[in-house]
Design brief:
The chain is α/β, with parallel strands linked by helices and about 300 residues long. The chain contains 13 helices and eleven strands. Helix 5 packs across helix 7. The longest helix is centred in the N-terminal third of the chain and has 14 residues.
Length: about 300
């Protein structure tokens, strides 16, 4: 039976690839809905981008827009990397439908509480929607089978020397989520930077020969120069698709369970995830942290997903 999932996202190049992978596998996923959050760009753009991707893929999954800003901290975005719209992909034309609502948080609560079966939630942007839903209705914690998160890092940051972008957007929300008792699986930069869409991988994707392979290879290629200039990488890191890849083939990754906190104090480490690898604090191990990724196996899975699309 297909796993029921809700995707909470801020599309975004790599969010678009993650959505495509999920839509490609109706045998594995029943996508109940998509909630959007501010993040890479503002909520009006991330919501529009989610609709663009889904409509182009022929999916009628409902979209609900959510939080427009963080709980307490000043808003940051990544438009310098993702462009003003967040997804510079001309092939993905403007959607003909609107979001179902502007109450993504209410949608999360109502959907999770209204189902007998527990639901998997995939969060690939700032965790503001999830944190607010927990605060408004703490019982949703018992209705979530697993929360799969892209964010954080066991080593260094990408939006600051210490912090990964999603966590730096709203560290207070992330701390609420990590303290909630939810079963969290986290994909941080230490792992996602092992999964690089090199020119060779993009060429292999394009060689599939369908429309989707061309469109998503183009989308992934747009980030090549950005990653080369910023980090010296040979291509774009596939951050968000790691969450969907894990649900399809968890053996791609290795994990270590540990206590994770988020630095919410002002200063150079604001938004940094603090990983108690050696269990020195004695605090409960609250997060299953991805440590290593099998990159060839990931890209083989990505190609198999894209080959199922138009």
């Amino acid at each position: 039976m297909a796993r029921p999932i809700i995707i909470d996202c801020d599309p975004g190049v790599d969010d678009a690839v993650a959505l495509a992978m999920a839509v490609a596998r109706p045998d594995e996923f029943e996508i109940l809905g998509v909630t959007t959050t501010y993040g890479n760009v503002g909520i009006e753009h991330t919501t529009n981008n989610a609709l663009r991707v889904l409509e182009w893929l022929g999916s009628d999954v409902p979209v609900h827009s959510g939080a427009t800003r963080s709980l307490l901290s000043p808003r940051v975005d990544a438009s310098q990397y993702h462009g003003d719209s967040g997804l510079e992909a001309p092939a993905l034309t403007q959607p003909t439908r609107a979001p179902e609502s502007a109450d993504g948080i209410g949608y999360l609560i109502d959907t999770l509480m209204g189902r007998e079966e527990r639901t998997t939630v995939v969060a690939t942007g700032p965790l503001t929607n999830i944190a607010l839903a927990i605060r408004l209705e703490p019982r949703i914690v018992g209705r979530i089978d697993e929360l799969v998160v892209m964010g954080g890092s066991t080593d260094f940051g990408n939006d600051s020397p210490a912090a990964e972008f999603n966590m730096m957007c709203d560290p207070h929300a992330a701390q609420i989520v990590f303290d909630s008792g939810l079963p969290v699986v986290m994909f941080g930069l230490n792992t996602t930077h092992q999964v690089i869409a090199s020119p060779q991988e993009n060429a292999a994707l394009r060689a599939i020969g369908n429309e989707s392979s061309a469109v998503f290879a183009d989308i992934m290629t747009t980030f090549e120069s950005t990653y080369l200039d910023a980090y010296g990488f040979a291509g774009a890191a596939m951050h968000d698709p790691c969450t969907i890849a894990y649900l399809l083939d968890p053996g791609i990754f290795t994990f270590r369970t540990m206590h994770v906190d988020v630095d919410t104090t002002a200063g150079v480490s604001f938004g940094r995830t603090v990983h108690d690898i050696w269990h020195l604090s004695g605090k409960p191990r609250n997060v299953q942290v991805a440590m290593d990724a099998d990159s060839p196996r990931f890209f083989d899975l990505l190609r198999r997903c894209i080959s199922r699309l138009r």
